[in-house]
Amino acid sequence: MKVEKVALENFRNYTSQEITFRDGLNVICGLNASGKTNLMESIFVAAIGRSPRTKNEKEMIRMGEDRAFIHLLLEKKFREHKINVELSKSEGKKINIDGASVSRLGELIGLLAVVYFSPDELKMIKEAPQERRRFLDLSLSQESKPYYVALTKYNHLLAQRNKLMKSVDYAEFSTTAFIWEKQMAEVSADIVIKRREFIRKLGVIADEYHRRIAGEGEDITLIYEPCVEGEDRETIRANIEEKLEESHEKDYELGYTTVGVHREDFNITSKGIDLRKFGSQGQQRTAALVIKLAEIEYYYKESGEKPVLLLDDVLSELDEKRRTALLEATAGTQTILTCTEFTENVAEYNKIVISKGTVVK
Ligand SMILES: Nc1ncnc2c1ncn2[C@@H]1O[C@H](COP(=O)(O)OP(=O)(O)O)[C@@H](O)[C@H]1O
Ligand SMILES: [Mg+2]
Question: 338 and 217 in one domain?
Fold first, then answer.
């Protein structure tokens, strides 16, 4: 798929600006603070419905203004789509797809699929499990609507269970929590099965890239760390239900749910070594890079379309070999890349120069 055009109005440091993109590689050049990350953020918001860098959505409205707009024209295999996001100080966020307003984020997510890669993602490997779960959830939610639905439902049920333990005494909690736990176990089983399959498939692709970049014999292995044992759906479901019940006392004492899919992780090893803990910075960066490249291919294999690759300021963080590998792997994928200076040896690309929120070339 392809982002054809983005028009921004009062978004961050943009007043009114339209930017047209081409197939293949689009390079956004500009000095620091010119608005490169802001542009990437706007595309992410049109894809996911929220910002990759802030929870405070009003922050994205240009200072001194009340409303911001992102208009995005998307070309997919069979048709074009118009995505409009309006951010208002008084009314919050409104999303509109092809002229119809959208009340749930689930209707937006997956329409424009993006793989987002910034220096923050380069740290994904060594960060806390939460960062790796965020990656799993974002990637899977774009590819699979049922996954997104299950995850949303799970988060709601988890909040209900946590709320219950704070509002009643232990005896009541331990006798009524099953109402939430039964449903949590159901949706968790779907989440576990999907995550397991994703990590397995992603691992195979990442391993190929890794051997290519790091050298023959340099494997990478992704290992899912599920919250319970079990192969088939029913075993997983039953095990989760049992675990939740077993943890009543501990959870009540601590005031939150200590077991479940919201605590899962996956391990990344090379030659049997846990890269999360023992990888060098170089190894961790390579791992993050190959996982992101694998994400593009995974999405393509599952959906038959290439996602749009957003690379914010990552070239300067990678050495030449890895930069070349990254740019080679983007062939056939619309890529929007930002940098302060582009010196790569690439035959053809669309160069866009930004200065202070304005396209100057
Ligand atoms: N809501 C806002 N209103 C006006 N300017 C903003 C807003 N949010 C951020 N900016 C400005 O945007 C600039 C940073 O843009 P950014 O896209 O992060 O730069 P870079 O090109 O280095 O990636 C800063 O000058 C900052 O002050
Ligand atoms: Mg930036």
Answer: no
Q: How does residue 122 score in pLDDT terms, banded at 50, 70 and 90?
A: confident
Sheet holding 308-312, edge to edge: 114-117, 308-312, 335-339, 25-29, 350-355, 358-359
Report the CATH number at residue 83. Answer: 3.40.50.300
pTM, full prediction: 0.96
Q: How far is CA 267 from CA 30, 216, 226, 289, in A?
A: 37, 21, 11, 15
Dist. CA 38 → ligand 1 center (Å)? 6
Number of folded domains that form the chain: 2
Atom number, ligand 1, closest to the C-alpha of residue 65: 3
**Tokens 């005896």 map to which residue?**
171
The CATH number assigned to the domain holding 220 equals: 1.20.1050.90
Distance in Å, CA 112 to ligand 1 centroid: 24
The verdict on the CB of residue 33 being under 6 Å from ligand 1 is: yes
Q: Which ligand is nearest to the CA of 32?
A: 1
Beta carbon of 345 within 6 Å of any ligand 1 atom: no
Check whether residue 196 and residue 229 sit in a common domain: yes
Please write the tens of the pLDDT for every residue from 21-70. 999 999 999 999 999 999 999 999 999 999 999 999 999 999 999 999 99
**Are residues 16 and 47 both part of a single domain?**
yes
How many whole angstroms separate alpha carbon 261 and alpha carbon 184?
9
Domain span holding position 227: 122-303
- 256 with 161, same domain? yes
- Give nearest CA residue, ligand 1 atom 7: 12
Determine the Cα–Cα distance for residues 361 and 354; give it in Å rounded to an integer. Answer: 7
- Residue 32, ligand 1, Cβ within 6 A: yes
